[in-house]
Amino acid sequence: MAKLYKKDASPPARTVMIASYILGVPYEPQELNPLLRQQDTPEMFKKNPMKTIPLWEEDNFCLADSHAIILYLFDKYAKPEHEHLYPRDKRIRATINHRLFFDCGILFPRLRSIMGPTYTGKLTKLSKSMIRNLESAYEILEKYLENTIYLADNLMTLADISIFTTMSTLNGLHPIDSNRYPKLKRWFNVMCAEKFSQEINEPGAKEHVEGLLAFMKNNLNKSKL
After folding, report:
1. N or C: which end of the chain has fewer CB within 10 A?
2. pLDDT of residue 224
3. Closest CA to 152 of 207, 208, 80, 84
4. Which residues have CB under 8 Å from 92's CB, separation 6+?
5. CA-to-CA distance for 159 and 151, rounded, in angstroms?
6. Structural contact between residues 106 and 198, judged by C-beta atoms closer than 8 angstroms
7. Do 204 and 14 contact (CB within 8 A), yes or no?
8. Residues 34-46: pLDDT tens digits?
9. Pair 32, 6: CB distance under 8 Å
10. For residues 171 and 159, what is the distance between their CA atoms, to the nearest angstrom?
11. Which tens digit of pLDDT belongs to each residue from 46-60?
12. In Å, what is the CA distance from 179 to each residue of 133, 149, 166, 176, 182?
């Protein structure tokens, strides 16, 4: 059986967990705590030089990065009823790929820019520049939803799953303004209503947000000493 090295609070790990759930792919969970740098051991470094989570291991084949993993899982395990997640239409696939690149190149890095200084004891609250960057990302997502119900098509795709897990943490830190971004808010609520969200995403997102806010509070208290 495949192994998934993950932490439930990690948005990328939740993306793979949700994709596995939808596709019906079993795996053996392997818990890694990135704050304790458990992914830095020589054994893990050999498997994943990026030192990131999640990591998918299957028959001595190791694959890092949630976006690459879910595309692999779809290619290998998807059944006809899953085709909407990554349709054969080349333009829809190109749009899905674009949204996945948006997540890994823009959206998640903006979350990571918050996580880094928070976990290293420097950040006590979101800075004005961080908020501007998040608002800019929300504005882009709002525009992507102008002509389709979901981010790349009128049916949910892999792009929605990937961006949803990132947005679940971001929304907890800087909530989506329904007046400014009504389409994004509607999309987010629709995704939250999915069974996979309630069973997999919601607990992990809650853990992640509460952890970040607790670190920020602790950092503030230390700065007053």
Report:
1. C
2. 78
3. 84
4. 152, 153, 157
5. 7
6. no
7. yes
8. 777 877 787 887 8
9. yes
10. 17
11. 888 888 899 999 998
12. 18, 18, 21, 9, 6
- Chain position carrying tokens 């790929």: 97
Alpha-carbon gap, residue 10 to 124, rounded angstroms: 21
- Locate tokens 């976990």: which residue? 119
Q: Which residues contact 10 (CB under 8 A, 6 or more apart)?
A: 34, 53, 54, 204, 208
pTM to 2 decimal places: 0.95
Structure tokens at 149: 């119900």
Phi, psi torsion values for 70, nearest 5 degrees: -70, -30
End-to-end CA distance of the chain: 51
Which of 55, 58, 51, 77 has its CA nearest to residue 66? 55
Report the DSSP pairing between strands 28-31 and 3-6. parallel
Residue spans of alpha helices (H) in 66-225: 66-77, 90-102, 108-119, 128-144, 158-173, 182-192, 195-196, 202-223
Confidence of residue 15 (pLDDT cuts 50, 70, 90): very high
Return the structure tokens found at 185. 């808010």
Amino acid sitting at position 175: P
Given a cut of 80, whether residue 217 has pLDDT beyond it is yes
* Amino acid sitting at position 115: M
Query: CA quadruple 158, 44, 11, 205: dihedral positive or negative?
Result: positive
